[in-house]
Amino acid sequence: MNAVNAHPAAISGWPAAPARPAWAIWWLCGLAAVAGWLVLRAWTPSGDPTHAVCALRRIAHIGCATCGLTRALAALARGNLGAALAFHPMALGLTGELAAAWGGSGLALARGSRMPDQRWIPWVIAANAAAFLLVWLVRLVTGTIPA
Questions:
Q1: What pLDDT is stored for residue 147 in this prediction?
Q2: Which residues contact 136 (CB under 8 A, 6 or more apart)?
Q3: Is residue 34 in a domain?
Q4: Do the domain assignments include residue 126?
């Protein structure tokens, strides 16, 4: 490619601007998160176990590893950290992880760089799954899974 046909960013040494679809997806994810947060903030969870969505809870009458997570996120959206931690201790950490991933993606897009190597993502998912299992076992043994 000669200098006449080259992209201005390639000539100046600056990274090329990211494609518009990447920005659109990033903004849509952010808007979806804000919309979800607003819905959780307005939602009043039912304390009645018969309204539970969890199949394990309905069939075996045992809360699953994510039991209380939606209620914890709703409490967190209303600014009630104590209730959020009581409903599910991983809610705050998961919210932080998602915010960091969204912010990091936006930073990479703003810099015009490619998204960083994502081979670490399965490890983070595995670590979260192990943490959920550990929290669930502790809560099951101590009887602290929310009703």
A1: 73
A2: 63, 64, 65, 67, 145
A3: no
A4: yes
Q: How many domains does the structure of the chain reveal?
A: 1
pLDDT in tens, 89-100: 999 999 999 999
Neighbour tally for 83: CB within 10 Å? 16
Q: What's the pLDDT tens digit per position in 65-94?
A: 888 898 899 999 999 999 999 999 999 999
Structure-token match 């390639």, residue found? 10
Q: 64 Cβ partners below 8 Å, 6+ apart?
A: 54, 56, 57, 136
DSSP state of 51: G
Separation of alpha carbons 103 and 114, rounded Å = 14
List, for residues 38-67, the tens digit of each pLDDT value. Answer: 999 998 877 776 777 777 877 887 888 888
Residue 142 contacts residue 56 (beta carbons within 8 Å) = no
The residue type of 1 is: M
